[in-house]
Amino acid sequence: MASTKDTAQHIIKNIGGADNITSLTHCATRLRFQLADPSKIDEKTLESDKAVLGTVHQGEHGYQVVMGGGVADYYRAIIKEPGVDPSGEHKGNARGPKIGADGKKEYGGIRKTGWVDYCFEFLSDTFRPILWALLGASLIITLLILADTFGLQDFRTDMEDQPAGYQLMHAMWRSVFYFLPIMIGATASKKLGANEWVGAAIPAALLTPEFMGLSNIAETTTFLGGDAQKVEIFGLPLILNDYSSQVFPPLLAAIGLYWVEKGLKKIIPSSLHMVFVPFFSLLIMIPLTAFLLGPFGIGIGNGISNFLAAVNNFSPFVLAIVIPLLYPFLVPLGLHWPLNAIMVQNLATLGYDFIQGPMGAWNFACFGLVAGVLVVSIKEHNKAMRQVATGGLAAGLLGGVSEPSLYGIVLRFKKTYPRLLPGCFAGGVVMGIFNIKANAFVFTSLLTIPAMTPALGYLLGVAVAFFVSFFLVLFFDYRSPEERDEIRAQIAAEREAEGKEPVEVLTPAADAAPAAAAAAAPAAVAVAAPASEAIKLDSPLEGEAVELSEVPDPIFAGAKLGEGMAIKPTGNTVYAPADGKILTVQKSGHAVGLSLDNGVQLLIHVGLDTVELAGEGFTVHVEKKQRVSAGDKLITFDHEFIESKGYNLITPVVVTNTSKFFSIEGKAGAVTPSDQLLTVTPKAKSEE
């Protein structure tokens, strides 16, 4: 077995050497590298070390190496190696960015954080906190469209002609889209580091009755080739626009606010920041947005929307094929967020959207692939992959969320894209034939089919996409022959150890020879039979328990750190689920590891990537090696603050020494710290 030092040297060598590391940090389970040249990574050799549990690319230069609970030991071993400087600063002859004559860091043509990366990260983190409201509103829209389909009400009739109950339901979804600029102003400002409430107040000013009332004294003029309303304000022409549901004006206003605040803080004494920075920010930014940034933002949105509309009018068939073929590559990189903004823009300007329909072909091709994986996993008795596929399929078909499927399956296996893309293409062809349009912004799931026109054409398109990918997986599998044969050999060995009959799975003819060779391979390590008594563990916090497969992170979703469950917290306190000792607790407060007296080693990881908050929003109540009793307070966290920063608070609770147990099972649903979360079944003592 390799020592910690050997593994550290192995990692350095296979990520391109010490000179390739521009910075290094770690969280509860992962080494987080920023690399000058990611192409130097030898990923296959890197993952050959058994201590490396997995790897994840993050952005253009980010790279995560998953090490589990002992990550701090590997981090310390790595930074002791010659030439490794975790801070990325230039020290003597050590590797790092040099300091130029102007005092700025020189990166040899490579920025430590690329502008392209940051732009897409900015869009992603701006929209992610709002998605909850958008998803809820999209389902309310679906209910109203269903009512329209069955003749109970007219979805598009004037509000004054709607029954009172339906007016209320329309208000439920319109609240999200009408005030969308305020939400975007807040989240975008927060992401940039400006005050989110000032960022929300700027677009809010353009939605007030006072601002909209200016139209009563306005005159008609020509603006950007069309008719517009103009009013004179202190001798300056102000073009009036409807800013409800707009995306680009609040984004531009947030960027402007960032620079204004930054400048004001340099001029105004720090003791007066709280009063005069927001005062002057509002005084400057509201007129600047009304006169310049707002109309310019609407022009950008209309320009992009009109361009895509022109392409759609020229050949909706081609666009309907291109969109679903692009999405499988855009979503993993986070590059799909601009298209989401255009969807909202289309609905605001055109009254319909032509992207969401074809996008449904990608989603349902992905869900069809996952359904195929589920069927194959059931036939193979592959419990781990069955759980991942079940969670991904449920999230997709009912919620229209593709991330669990994408990170849990698609990006993990070599042969998924050849099964996925034909489904995207076939579904896109059908979408193009019917020229599908969306009547509202919805997440493409089974529940939102009525939001598309024509609905039957859309239903046929998603069905084609789903079943093409589904049957490709059934006929040709979703793994390379090597991946498939290795997994089947492990399952066969486990069933033999349990005294069960081996599973016969039909193998595609093209792969018959490798399968026969695998059948003769040595059996994997046997799993002992279960002991009679199971260990019951309570939930460490209050919330909704879900399968690990629902965690939008490939390492947790794939149970690479251990089996367990995840909790979507409604409370803000993490408690010890049983008596034991603190193995490790992060200074940032986002994770704690416990060694319980019953033999279970548990990792509780509050949120995803929350280590980046550097402890802000977390309070730690324990320290390493401290004894704790069941119910002791371990960590408290500021739920609203962390979510306002754009972080997902879903909390994996995993048994890191899973291999020592026969099975680990959990039950989904609402939990409190007094409710059972996990049942851990030990192996028989005679075979441990």
Automatic annotation (TrEMBL):
GO terms for biological process: phosphoenolpyruvate-dependent sugar phosphotransferase system. It is a multi-pass membrane protein. Residues 121-490 form the PTS EIIC type-1 domain. It is found in: Cell membrane. GO terms for cellular component: plasma membrane. Keywords: Cell membrane, Kinase, Membrane, Phosphotransferase system, Sugar transport, Transferase, Transmembrane, Transmembrane helix, Transport. The keyword Glycoprotein does not apply. Residues 553-657 form the PTS EIIA type-1 domain. InterPro entries: Dup_hybrid_motif, Glu_permease_IIB, PTrfase_EIIB_Cys, PTS_EIIA_1_perm, PTS_EIIC, PTS_EIIC_1, PTS_IIB_1, PTS_Sugar-Specific_Components. It comes from the Bacteria. Coiled coil: none annotated. CDD domains: PTS_IIB_glc (cd00212). It holds the Pfam family PTS_EIIC. The active site is at residue 27. Residues 5-88 form the PTS EIIB type-1 domain. One of its GO terms (molecular function) is protein-N(PI)-phosphohistidine-sugar phosphotransferase activity. Its main location: membrane. This is PTS beta-glucoside transporter subunit EIIBCA. It comes from Corynebacterium phoceense.
